Amino acid sequence: MNEIVAKVLQASGFDSLNPAQQAALDKGLLEGESLIVAAPTASGKTLLAEIAALDTIMNKGKKVVYIVPLKALATEKYEEFKSKYDPLGLRIAISIGDLDSTDPWLADYDLVIVSDFGHGFLTDNLINLICKHSKFLAVNTQTNSANMGFNLITEYTNIDYVALDELEIRYAAHNRTGELRSIMKIIAPKIHCKNLAITRGIHGAVSFCKELGFLSSPALATQVVDTIGAGDAFLSFTAPLAALEAPMDMVLFIGNAAGALAVQIVCNRESVSPVELKKFIATVFK
Ligand SMILES: Nc1ncnc2c1ncn2[C@@H]1O[C@H](COP(=O)(O)OP(=O)(O)OP(=O)(O)O)[C@@H](O)[C@H]1O
Ligand SMILES: [Mg+2]
Predict the structure, then answer these.
(1) Is 228 in the pocket of ligand 1 (CB under 6 A)?
(2) What is the structure's pLDDT at 23?
(3) What is the CATH number of domain 105-284?
(4) Which residue is closest in CA terms to ligand 1's atom 8?
(5) For residues 51 and 58, what is the distance between their CA atoms, to the nearest angstrom?
(6) Mutation test of ligand 1: which of 153, 200, 234 has the most ligand atoms closer than 8 Å to its C-beta?
(7) Closest protein CA for atom 2 of ligand 1
(8) Is 83 helix (H, G, I), strand (E, B) or coil?
(9) I need a labelling partner for 96 at 20 to 30 A (CA). Which of 61, 176, 223, 264 fits?
(10) CA nearest 165: which of 146, 183, 189, 186?
(11) Distance from the CA of 220 to the center of ligand 2, in angstroms?
């Protein structure tokens, strides 16, 4: 008997394959063929996946992803595979996005930057962990056509630095037309945010913090090719500055400089380079 098949049978407490399993083996399960196995519930389909997986890991030196449609099933399979294959030296992990963890490993990092694009990857549990353990937390909750009105900064709390665009904070405040500064003043304490920066495209950026109140800084772009990704460039460069406690007027200025370079890049083809940013800032002061 094939060594891998023998190992899986032994780990499962069986003596031999059933006819459906043998048929799958004969059709090339261990020869790298793609197979669709249609058989009733509890007829041993998982065992076939385990044989193929073990062969892939042990003989081919590759990794395996086992996908199921339900979280409960993922947990069940995780426990089962772990108890069966841990003894063979396989490392089994589970990813269902909302595992409860009390491990404060995030606290080892000086800065945690969250770009939440609202596709569901960041579950409530993960957000709670991030907000609880991050030493310095910087967040953007991106609005796009798929999540409009649902991906809100108000899901987060205890945020050290927030960078949103104007539409994003208006959604969070359910306020389309009110004065932006009043909206910022309402939202900042609601999410326990120390420094709030709002980007306004061609109108630059404005910030609010309790101690200094409002500061604003104009856009610096001279040539606009594609504005997509400008807000991300703003967040990427300003979050580390905010973590270093740089003065907010400097943070906004450098953010607008990064934005000015980002709007010259088509479709996020490249990122804004720190060298280009330094050069750009030098020309602004000339
Ligand atoms: N049309 C523009 N003209 C000049 N500067 C711009 C323009 N659009 C963006 N910028 C610069 O980029 C910064 C961030 O842009 P914006 O407010 O559009 O972010 P955003 O809406 O989050 O963008 P995205 O989500 O596509 O990354 C602005 O503060 C500004 O400095
Ligand atoms: Mg944005």
Answers:
(1) yes
(2) 94
(3) 3.40.1190.20
(4) 201
(5) 10
(6) 234
(7) 202
(8) helix
(9) 61
(10) 183
(11) 17
β-pairing, 205-209 vs 137-141, is unpaired
Name which of 64, 45, 46 is nearest 54 in CA terms: 64
Q: Give the integer Cα–Cα distance in Å for 32 and 43.
A: 22
DSSP 218-275: ----S--S--TTHHHHHHHHHHHHHHTT--HHHHHHHHHHHHHHHTTSGGG-SPPPHH
Successive 10-residue mean pLDDT values, the chain, 286 residues: 94 95 94 89 93 95 92 92 95 75 78 94 88 96 93 97 98 98 98 97 97 96 95 98 97 98 93 96 94
Which one-letter DSSP state was computed for residue 93?
Answer: -
Note the pLDDT of residue 42. 87
Three-state DSSP at 137 gives strand
| Residue 82: strand, helix, or coil | helix
E strand or H helix at 208, and its extent? strand 205-209
Quote the CA–CA distance of 278 and 175 in Å, as a whole number.
Answer: 37
Q: What are the start and end residues of each CATH 3.40.1190.20 domain in the chain?
A: 105-284
